[in-house]
Design goal:
90 residues; 4 helices
Amino acid sequence: MLKRDFAAVIFFTVVAVFFVFAALLTHPFGSPDNPVMDDYIIHNTQTEVGANNGVTSVVFDYRGFDTLGEATVLFTAVAGVILVFRRLKK
């Protein structure tokens, strides 16, 4: 096995373990921690964040780590596709 193949196996194993732990540690669906969070965001978005658009403030300010996680998943998928197509080219 080549060094690159070994590194790819280790990388994808670490990513898979991360996803398993992330799935196990999420809150159950349908049981919010704070049911009045919607009203809080609607009334305080402009003063806390300074954004006129409530959706933008939620995506980029209140849930910034979630957005970062989605970007990481997208980057990992693109990197995987590039690795597969580079392998097929040879």
